[in-house]
Design brief:
The protein has 278 residues and is mainly alpha-helical. It is built from eleven helices and two strands. The chain is 74% helix and 3% strand. The chain has a two-stranded antiparallel sheet with strand order 1-2. Strand 1 and strand 2 form a beta hairpin. Helix 1 crosses helix 9 and helix 5 packs across helix 6. The longest helix is centred in the first third of the chain and has 31 residues. It is globular, with a radius of gyration of 19 Å.
Length: 278
């Protein structure tokens, strides 16, 4: 029972990261109809920015916040400079090729700027654990890292809900996502809303990247590649048109991955197959 609960909580912690990246993927897809294959590498570069700031004695929470702001600006610039010109060609394949090029380019740029050696990202959460249930040898401990991760996803969802449902910008963003042509006829500047969608997605990805790096003993330029696969699986499972679906599916994928790793005695790497099977 203890092992089951511990693996379940580990799966929830991982699922928060998968759900966050899936949320970013769905946000772009709903507003632009584009599958952003560069989402993971955009998050990777922002994670390196967070790490670089912490290595210069900036507190980790502030470093993550700064990297999210930088990612927000970079996401808007990427949409304006790289995505919008090829979108005008009315061929979805053009945009896919650009995002694949971004994937390769950002990964190489991160290694060129920050090096190829593994780096260590401090955790934004307190160290230690709390007792969940049981006593003595049967006590189930929950790490503060896990508790912090579990708190992040509801906070993200609440902020996105407030933005999309309670602000004029959110209303415009939803209008453009539902029907861009009709939104333009109502005087909404659709291109600005598309830029906002990319910016928000990049900021969410930056947070997810920093969180996953802080849970590893070390990270390098391959940090987000497996995470992106899980996130795409979660987005597909939850539906690319559903923000809530992406969040729930991310948790499902994270828990299923942890349980498969623990209980399925099969070939190495079988846990990577499960999200795709789902």
């Amino acid at each position: 029972m203890r092992l089951f609960v511990e693996q379940f909580l580990n799966g929830v912690g991982n699922g928060v990261v998968y759900g966050s990246v899936a949320l970013a993927l769905v946000l772009i897809f709903r507003t632009t109809g584009v599958l952003n294959f560069a989402q993971g590498e955009m998050a990777l570069f922002s994670t390196y920015v967070s790490w670089w700031l912490t290595s210069h004695d900036v507190p980790v929470v502030l470093a993550i916040a700064v990297s999210m702001v930088a990612a927000f600006v970079a996401g808007a610039v990427i949409e304006r400079v790289l995505i919008r010109p090829v979108e005008e060609a009315r061929s979805p394949l053009n945009v896919v090729i650009v995002t694949l090029g971004l994937f390769l380019g950002l990964n190489s740029l991160a290694q060129l700027v920050f090096g190829t050696d593994p780096q260590s990202m401090p955790s934004p959460f307190p160290s230690g654990s709390v007792d969940l249930i049981g006593s003595g040898a049967d006590t189930i401990d929950v790490q503060w890292d896990t508790i912090g991760l579990i708190a992040v996803l509801p906070a993200e969802c609440a902020l996105l809900f407030l933005l999309l449902q309670r602000t004029r910008a959110g209303l415009k963003l939803r209008a453009v996502a539902a029907n861009p042509d009709s939104a333009r006829l109502h005087g909404i500047h659709a291109t600005r809303m598309l830029m906002l969608g990319w910016a928000l997605s990049a900021a969410i990805g930056a947070l997810a990247g920093s969180l996953v790096a802080s849970q590893r003993t070390g990270f390098d330029a391959s940090l987000m590649q497996t995470v992106l696969v899980y996130a795409f699986a979660a987005a597909a499972l939850g539906g690319f048109d559903s923000l809530i679906g992406a969040v729930v599916a991310g948790l499902v994928v994270g828990i299923a991955d942890a349980m498969t790793f623990q209980y399925v005695d099969a070939l190495d790497g079988i846990e990577v197959v499960l999200p795709l099977a789902l």
